[in-house]
Amino acid sequence: MRVVIAEDNALLREGLVLLLTSAGHDVVAVAGSGPEVVPALLQHRPDVAVLDVRMPPGFRDEGLRAALEARERLPGLPVLVLSQYVEETYAGELLGDGTSGIGYLLKDRVGRIDEFLDALERVAAGGTALDPEVVAELLTRRKNSPLDSLTPREREVLSLMAEGHDNATIARTLVVTERAVHKHIGNVFLKLGLPPSDSGHRRVLAVLAYLAHTPQA
């Protein structure tokens, strides 16, 4: 898998390069500032991009802006964004276009190597990988919405769906049958007003887009 990394912290950047190359991936380019990101992506057209949210020169949202621009110019480009903190606005912007191949992880997750590599591969394959802490923030901050009607089990299922897990993994995690998971997912879609026949990555992205745009109280 060909990867472009955009991260201004030299230590973390080199750590990511070492981690990915050791896992058998090809890091085709690295960028240390916002203006370098889009040209690198356009030149190399990687299988997936790993981008920091805040980069020089302003250390605000240069990495995110580069990710959004790159996805406009390279439709479908898988992007895994890394952030130091849960920044709901950034997650919402990234998820707002409703397309596939999106990930948003906290940097602490990189240290959990298996989880990070699994998330990267899911994103590269067109799936989603949303950090559990980000999911929790999105769920708990929403008030006076259809989310309030979900049962505790349905919220657990929705959280795991949002993280990008398939039905089999959700069933193993919750120690229930896949049939039970399928039923819970149907209830979630019914309560959120989403098409019950939706399946695969599209259904997960629909839920994420819904969460990202549900007004806060």
From TrEMBL:
InterPro entries linked: CheY-like_superfamily, NreC/VraR/RcsB-like_REC, Sig_transdc_resp-reg_C-effctor, Sig_transdc_resp-reg_receiver, Tscrpt_reg_LuxR_C, WalR-like
The protein's name in its UniProt record: Response regulator transcription factor
Domain Response regulatory: 2-122
Residues that bear 4-aspartylphosphate: 52
Entry keyword annotation includes Phosphoprotein: yes
Keywords: DNA-binding, Phosphoprotein, Transcription, Transcription regulation
PANTHER family (UniProt xref): TRANSCRIPTIONAL REGULATORY PROTEIN NARL-RELATED, TWO-COMPONENT RESPONSE REGULATOR
HTH luxR-type domain ranges (all copies): 143-214
